[in-house]
Amino acid sequence: MKIVIAGTGKVGFTVAQRLCREGHDITLIDEKPEVLEAASNAMDAMICCGSCAAPSVLREAEAGKCEVFIAATGNDEANLVACQFARRMGAGHTIARLRNQQYLDSGESLREIMDLSLAINPDYVTAEEISRVLQFPAATQVDSFPDCELEIVTFRIPERSRLNGLALKRLPPEREKKVLVCAVERGGRVQIPDGNFVLQAGDSISVTAQPKTLRKFFEAMGAYQKPAKNVLILGGSRIAVYLTQLLEATGVSVTIIESSNERCQKLAELLQDADVVCADGTDTTVLAQSGIQDADGFVALTNIDEENIILSMYAEKLGVEKVVSKINNEKFTDLLRDVFPDTTLSPKNLVAERIEGYVRGLAHASDKSTIEALYYLGNRDVTATEFVVGAKAACACKTLMELRLKPGVLISAVVRGGKSFLPDGKTALQPGDKAVVITAGSSVVTLDDILT
User: Fold this and answer.
1) For 64, which DSSP code?
2) Which of 26-35, 143-152, 216-225, 328-337 has the highest mean predicted lDDT (pLDDT)?
3) Which of 87, 182, 297, 425 is the most exposed place for a label (fewest CB within 10 A)?
4) Cα–Cα dist 12/31, whole Å
């Protein structure tokens, strides 16, 4: 598809790279020539220099002829104007990156008024992800799908867990039908396990089940940790504001450390129930006085990756049960994968995944299947994709035991009539069902791709 992306900052550049790898025809718009030159050297894309809010620039970029127009600049208003101009020129779908949550929370639907296909706030998406992880401290990642009650929780098996040395077919019968181990990463290699697979300490496994069932599963396997109730946040960014609001809504006590006096005053106005400490969070004395020794959750949200990494390691050394770090440099993420086992996440990657899933759904929509959402579990080797089963899908109306699935493919959940369940061999996918497909090493862009 022809895709025009306005803004080549962290989000725009990451989205462009991923969509280029998908084989799409990409055109980039930015006001900075040096940024465009660097982007064009990194990927196969056309470039157009100028403001995305200027109709002349949009015409030069042929925004009116594209299937998807993505506005990802740092200016919300420019993104909205660019999307509206592009849509009126003939763009098929428009996606806007918006950092002001008021635009998305307004009484009237902004998407309808501005004719947006998708509006996404990187800060809010990141806060939601951190909030979910703090509810499951044992997890390194928690993913949930639209309209699906089941969650996919990824965690690393500790030495003393009952899962260490356990074959999957030996799972207690009362757990086996309610919990599905859908992927295992060991030594950098990911696989879809069968019943004979023996789990080991250090394995990073992804498990699908209802949230309540997952908690009981963690308890039974000796890996349960209570949800965080006292969280210390380093850095008073917008992510910190959204995260605090989400946590306080569930009864969590929050303390924020921020070095800027002006920002602290703003935080105190926005978050009246949170404790705001105006000090340098890299000072261990400040951390001690802020109660890090009593916290069961620590979240590093500064704009400096190195600070987040070092202070997160310090918090972990002090015994904080759940540590989350915001890291934008993917090189650090790869280096820390085995050294620092707790949660690291990147706002740009979270947004890029959402947009990539949406675009992939548009590119491969048919009467056989459509894509509702896409997530990567752990590294990018494992994909969880939610498909809507079409009437003409080859797998429709056949039981799973009748289907010949490719190696490295697993149907982990089905949503039917608003209810979610784990499928078994007797389950037959029906038109209109939503099926969550886990793939490791297999290329799956349509539901029929899961078959040999």
Assistant:
1) G
2) 26-35
3) 425
4) 13
Return the residue matching tokens 């080797």: 381
Q: Is the pLDDT of residue 106 over 80?
A: no
For 176-225, give the DSSP string.
HTT-EEEEEEETTEEE---TT-B--TT-EEEEEE-HHHHHHHHHHTT---
Dihedral sign (CA 195, 199, 204, 209): positive
Phi, psi values for residue 378, rounded to 5°: 65, -115
Q: Which two tokens stand for residue 103?
A: 């635009």
3-state secondary structure of 357: helix
Whole-angstrom Cα distance, residue 299 to residue 232?
Answer: 6
Band of residue 219 on the pLDDT scale cut at 50, 70, 90: confident
| Beta bridge partner(s), residue 435 | 387, 414
The position carrying tokens 């550049």 is 13
Domains of the chain, first to last: 2-120 (3.40.50.720), 126-220 (3.30.70.1450), 230-320 (3.40.50.720), 351-450 (3.30.70.1450)
pLDDT in tens, 357-379: 889 888 888 778 888 888 888 66
Question: Whole-angstrom Cα distance, residue 362 to residue 95?
Answer: 13
pLDDT of 337 strictly over 70: no
CB neighbours (10 Å) of residue 452?
Answer: 8
The amino acid present at 416, given as its one-letter code, is R
pLDDT tens-digit series, residues 17-71 = 999 988 999 999 999 999 999 998 999 999 999 999 999 999 999 999 999 999 9
In this prediction the pTM is 0.86
- Burial pattern 124-155, b for ≥16 Cβ within 10 A else e, equals bbbbbbbbbbbbbbbbbbbbbbeebbbbbbbb
C-alpha–C-alpha distance, residues 235 and 314, integer Å:
16
Q: How far is CA 163 from CA 193, 211, 342, 440, in A?
A: 14, 19, 19, 22
CA distance 136 to 224: 8
At 292, the pLDDT band (50, 70, 90 cuts) reads very high
Beta bridge partners of 3: 26, 68
The first and second tokens of residue 373, run together, are 């959402």
